[in-house]
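Example 3.2
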Amino acid sequence: MQFSKMKKQILSFVAPSLRPRLDLYATVDRHFHDGEARVWMTLDGEEIFRAEDLRFTFEADRRYALAKKRLPEKPERITLEIFQSDWFNTSRVLYEQIERELEEEGWHANYDVQKDLLLYPTLAIEEALTHPHAFIRGFALLDRRVGKRRLERVTCDTPFELTCLKIRLEAEVN
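Structure, written as tokens:
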């Protein structure tokens, strides 16, 4: 799906009080080998969210390099059996844990956010508010289907969710 269509569909969920103030952008830098991509969201022209593949991957790799001392010994020969080894399974779990920690800290990968943007319109609001991805939970707080009373009871796990909650509560007061 083209980003412009996805953007129009996603922004249609935003509460009416925020709709003219909120915008979503995406870009791909063709000068990079793989076309470094990023998505960002602005409120009144100020960036409130950013997801970048390269930045996210570099930080995940840096943390993995520091943590890989905890892994079992890597098999000397690379064969198909490596995929059943303790090293491979532990390594994969460690990398996934690092990615979850990064998301909780406010780092986001463009490739995950693009998938979330496609998924969001198919979710019921209850599913969106309890989804495992922080972007979906945060964006759900901007959704017109969430009322004021529910907003007042929400607890936030990530910086993006907290930002979205503050924005929505301020918009509902004014």
